[in-house]
Design brief:
There is one protein chain. This protein has 2 domains: 41 residues, no CATH class; 29 residues. It is an alpha+beta fold. It has 3 helices and 3 strands.
């Protein structure tokens, strides 16, 4: 923790990316493409659906702030206040 009254100099600027993290992500992207890209991922996902959906679930947001209601016809309506969008579950 920085000492109060003492200025801190150097280091990364806020929001800048870590060089090692960027390098690893670039390497993974290149490997993904060399392994066949999206078509290879689809083939693997069909052969390993439970593993594919575990991976997919980890990519989803952990929490979504939304209001859920049913309309007069019984359709479920989801309101996402963060971005102002509105959608139904059958879309």
């Amino acid at each position: 923790m920085a000492n109060p009254g003492r200025q801190k100099f150097g280091g990364r600027k806020p929001g800048s990316k870590n060089k090692a993290t960027v390098a690893v992500k670039d390497a993974l992207e290149k490997a993904f493409e060399q392994l066949g890209g999206v078509p290879a991922l689809v083939t693997w996902g069909k052969a390993n659906p439970s593993e594919f959906y575990k991976l997919w679930a980890r990519m989803l947001p952990k929490e979504i702030k939304a209001e859920v209601e049913t309309d007069a016809k019984g359709a479920v309506v989801v309101y996402l206040p963060d971005d102002g969008r509105e959608s139904t579950l059958d879309e």
